[in-house]
Design goal:
523 residues, 16 strands, Beta-Lactamase, five-stranded antiparallel beta sheet, Alpha-Beta Plaits
Length: 523
């Protein structure tokens, strides 16, 4: 009875491998322990620093809000007997606007919502009646209020701080308000934007609806942030610090604190990568000092690894050349003498088979419009190339849904997609065997009818037009189509020219009132 040859291993090699393994594990454990201790210390210190800084800024913001409310309250008492005195109102608005850089603008509004006075005068809002829900928040509240961010009648994205004006008998006379332009230079930005970190830290402020009202990137102001744990916790009134992933997918070390009187939250954060950048340098220094001994150790490891990794290297090299016809044979020829290499070899061979299947499926998908299941432009071009190569004459119907933008604007894009899908289904039901249906873009479609005259194509187009005009789509009602027809090679010798003729016929149908069919030869 014959026996299989034993692996060519001996005790010396096994002991060498064990010794190298022990040294590497010990060194790695030392490096890792050093790294983890330093990492934890840096992260905790950064979190606490950010929390303290956020709390300090929240306190400063609270003081700023209280100060502005006192200014507005004083102005409100001054206006009690002056609400009918336009010069006095203008003077008070200008005084409040000019006394500090607190507000970007000041307005006085009566109980009917009519703007009586403004500063600066360039607002051109005097006599304007506030009608939007957001702009009328202060009128409806009839109490000191900080509004949610909104777009003012003058087109600025603002937060308004207002104080009501009551007559001596308690009648509500209106309010005086100071506004902060969130997307322009403002006192809030000066208060929060000047900090002394030079380590990649930054801060932002959100209102109670998770909308950014301050951010170093001004273009993001007004953006609503979701899925950020720090924001959700600070808006619940919590002052805390922990690791978060921001809305851009970046790991951050965030400290946060609420501004109680406004419902705002201040978040100070630093990229985790920036925090840990120093520890990497420290660890590198440790590694460099261990390098001489490490190199000697690696030399021995390399000799062992060369032999062990050879099958894996061969597999990886062959896998990188899968576009070669001989790739599968090359991989099959690799001598995978141990379990992992054998498993990987089998997996790669199985993957090649799956990849070929996937490529075939992707080829089909790349020619198909995902919304309708019709051919897309790439698929359409493939069909046209086939017609041209085989000299197959054809008619083309270019069609477009009339007033489709109105459907989207009125019912929403989901309903618009439903209309497109419904039309595609009707086209498939009405199409003849051999016809090719394409979605050329948006609400535009093309139908190619091989070996079909322009007059016969017109009958097909008319039948489709009447059918669509007579059917009702749930939630939308009736729609109509405009259709244009051309023929290759009767109306043009170049296929591209014929497609343009069909498009021109389509737009001629629209110009003539829509819901009709136009032959290119009549243009």
């Amino acid at each position: 009875m014959s026996s299989s040859p034993l692996p060519r291993l001996n005790l010396r090699n096994l002991m060498l491998a064990m010794a190298i393994f022990s040294v590497v594990i010990t060194l790695c454990n030392s490096f890792y322990a050093t790294y983890e201790v330093q990492r934890t210390l840096l992260i905790n210190n950064t979190l606490e620093a950010n929390r303290v800084y956020a709390a300090k800024l929240a306190e400063m913001t609270e003081s700023f809000i209280q100060s502005t409310r006192q200014q507005l309250a004083y102005s409100a008492t001054e206006l009690v007997t002056k609400m009918a005195d336009e010069p006095a109102l203008m003077a008070e608005a200008r005084r409040l606007h000019a006394q500090s850089n607190t507000f970007n603008s000041v307005v006085v509004v009566n109980a009917a919502g009519v703007v009586l006075a403004t500063s600066p005068d360039t607002l051109n809002m005097k006599g304007f009646k506030l009608t939007s829900t957001r702009a009328r928040q202060s009128l409806e509240a009839k109490k000191p209020l900080i509004t949610d961010p909104f777009v003012s009648p003058s087109g600025n994205y603002i937060v308004s701080l207002s104080h009501p004006v009551f007559a001596a008998n308690g009648d509500y006379l209106g309010y005086i308000a100071g506004t902060i332009y969130l997307q322009q230079s403002n006192i809030l930005g000066e208060l929060l934007g000047k900090h002394y970190y030079q380590d990649g830290s930054y801060l932002y402020v959100v209102d109670r609806h998770q909308t950014l009202i301050y951010h170093p990137e001004a273009t993001r102001i007004g953006e609503r942030i979701s899925g950020n744990n720090a924001i959700e916790e600070v808006l619940q009134g919590r002052e805390y610090a922990h690791h978060v992933v921001n809305s851009q997918g970046i790991d951050m070390l965030a400290g946060f604190a609420p501004v109680a009187s406004t419902g705002w939250g201040i978040v100070v954060q630093r990229p985790k990568a920036a925090t840990l950048a120093g520890i990497n340098e420290h660890l590198l220094s440790v590694v460099l000092k261990s390098l001489p001994v490490g190199l000697l150790t690696l030399a021995g490891i390399w000799l062992s690894a060369l032999f062990i990794s050879r099958p894996l290297w061969q597999l990886a090299t062959s896998a990188g050349l899968m576009n070669k016809q001989s790739a599968q044979a090359d991989i099959s020829g690799v001598r995978s003498w141990y379990f992992e290499a054998a498993q990987l070899k089998r997996a790669i061979l199985r993957g090649i088979g799956l990849l070929n299947e996937r490529i075939n499926k992707l080829h089909t998908d790349s020619h198909t419009d995902t919304l309708t299941g019709l051919l897309n432009r790439r698929g359409m071009q493939h069909v046209l190339d086939s017609y041209e190569q085989e000299k197959t004459p054809f008619s083309v119907i270019a069609l477009d849904i009339d007033h489709f933008k109105q459907v989207n604007d009125t019912f929403g894009h989901d309903t618009g997609d439903l209309v497109i899908q419904t039309l595609a289904k009707v086209m498939q039901e009405q199409a003849r065997r051999g016809d090719t249906l394409c979605r050329s873009g948006g609400e535009e479609f093309m139908i190619f009818l091989p070996a079909t005259s322009a007059n016969n194509a017109r009958e097909v187009a008319e039948r489709l037009r009447r059918h669509v005009a007579n059917m009702a789509i749930t939630g939308v009602g009736h729609i109509t189509l405009s259709l244009g027809i051309a023929h290759w090679p009767e109306t043009g010798t170049a296929i591209g020219q014929v497609l343009k003729q069909a498009d021109r016929a389509l737009y001629q149908a629209k110009r003539e009132g829509r819901n009709r069919v136009i032959l290119s030869e009549t243009l």
